[in-house]
User: What shape does this take?
Amino acid sequence: MAIMEELERYYPTSEEGLTDEQVRERVAAGRVNEYTSNTTKSYGRILWEHLFTFFNILNIVLLVLLLAVGAYKDLVFMIIVVANFLVGVIQEFSAKRTLDKLSLIVAACVRVIRSGKKHTVRVGEIVLDDVMELVAGNQIAADATVLSGYLEVNESLISGESDVIIKRPGDFLYSGSFVVSGNARAQVEHIGADNYANQISKSAKEQKKRKSELYSTLGTILRVISYIIIPVGVMLFYKQNVILNLLPEEAVVKTVAGLIGMIPEGLILMTSIAFVGSVIFLAHDHTLVQDMYGIETLARVDVICLDKTGTLTEGKIAFQNIIPLTDVDATTALCNICGASQDENATMTAIRQQFPAAHDWKPEALVPFSSERKYSGVCFANEGTYMLGAAEFLFPQDEALKEREAEIAEDGGRVVLLAHSDATLQENEIPSGLCPLAFLLLSDNVRKDTKDTLEYFDRYDVEIKIISGDHPKTVAHIAQQSGVKNAERYVDASTLETEEQLSQALVEYSVFGRVSPAQKKQMVALMKQQGKKVAMMGDGVNDVLALKEADCSVAVASGSDAAKNVSDIVLMDSNLKHLLHVVEDGRKIINNIQRVATLFISKTVYSVLLALATLFLFESAYPFTPLQLVVTSFVTIGAPSFFLALEPQYDRVKGKFIRNVLGRSLPGGLTITVAIILINYLVPLLAATPDELAAMCVYLAVAGGMWVLVKVSVPFTWIRRTVLIGMIGLFTIGVIFMHDFFEISAITPWQIVAVAVLCGVMPLLMMFFEWLARKMFAWMEKRKTGKKMLHKLNSMDG
Assistant: This one.
């Protein structure tokens, strides 16, 4: 701030702006609006997050312990740890580079006046005292003071209040707010860190940060493990070194093995790889993911709300026809309105193409178009006032005129009424004595692939709600062309005056016309209150409040800056079909990570239970060495999970993530635990040495892991079948050719029989524990205490 005070301020006019020399001075002094995108993490943060985790630090401690006792061969597990780290970092670096390139394409640009000419620059190229030209849809990139013109601004993204605020010359504009209506030029007062939005650490994107249900659930599981692992490790070493009288070196190796087994090494990594891989794929599919967890949220949605213009339709509005209501020729008036109006929306652009701008009449006052008002107007000297807008807002009491408008709208076109009054404009009010002159009919085409995309959502029971500011009949016609279910039933939202009426309409209707921006937000909020996951897709400034309120927000690249800035996902070519790909990728991530987590957690379950069995049941040491756990984990978890995490799997997400995972992993982990406990008690009968016991435990752990792999692979695909057969073959080759390295001793025929019998019984044991888990969950649902426990369990899913 001290630099700011010492720097000479310029006070340019709104017509000239800064000179080129003044701009160069500002750039040389570093007084530019440095803009840091929140889309991706920095390289340093990526490295930090991957390197300094609780389990990485624990692995380093285990590494030091093994080095201290000279157990160099058992350090093989660190290869997996390092590989996990490198794969995760490289993958996320790759995603960052891809997204940063894509972000440049949709980065907000600002129109500035310099040396009397208009220039378009990036947000980061604005300098102190620059004169910005602002229009509807712009997000204000820097704190500024209005020099000329008139704006209606929404500051909800920084203040939380959604009221529209009028800004006139001399008024202050806060960065982070967005222009609803109007046109003005403003001088930049603060840049970079001095901007209001940065000082309160709340930009539009920062307010929208969400937590991932997957990461939240997995994080809770890992926290529970972290509470257990250290005290169990200390007790394991004490039991094996002090009570069983193992040498310190051997006790350390066995304790490290117990702890390694408890760590679900790679689970978070596989989740990250799945998300990051999806982000890269979607980037190549012309989709910019600004919030990675938006992919997951979109896969879980029950309702998708769509605006009509620019989403269902191409947004390329064209003039179709003029339908006169009097003998007055409206051409001259329309040409002068086009010359005087400062609106740059799609409707005005289409009218200008048909009626070239003229400046024969002198404008005295303007009312810019607003989605809330549904009209705009120009007052000319000696010519009166001309209004353009919706008939039901300009003439709310004229039923015949509204019926005529509805008839014209039945063909799906946008209908705009031109009206005239001899009275002058007073603020933004409709002048008295207004008379209708003509209807203007505009058209827009439905996007290709829209029907197929909406049919896809319908097949998977995802509701579609069309919410638009256009006439209800226009919206219904477009909705029918797009294949929206029950599109013939529609409602005029301007008639829904209470929250109860709006809530009931959301149950009964799928198509809503004449929806105000505030109502769009309210509708999203009401559906969320009804327990639904809601996605919102829009392109205009009138969609911003609803986009911000939704669980997941989607914008199109051709839309307004404000809409893109608050959205989780931006469709680069504005093709609705890409939304389908995002949903499919989200489902793939959740379904695949659910299966992968089952593999990891089943190992954690039996590792924790075997550690406890070693402490309280066994008269022998922990049954595995680190090397044996490496080969066991690799063939039953590590390698299979890599393939499973990236496999196409687009089924709709069902049930709660945590219950689905525990419902499969607990039976698997318990089955392996029971089998290993039984083999320990059979040691005297089988006359097994410690090395032979360890080998039998390895075989049982691998067999149990394969049965769990079978469970998560059903129904089998060629990929899953190949992975299962490949892992069995790989383990067999390892036992035959590398049994000495992995410390897997030969076992006797009777020991082989015992292992084979237990392996054969495993599916039955697993079925028993699955039945027991179902009974347990059912019992918990019926009991008050159980319901509380289930609620806590389900709350882990967010």
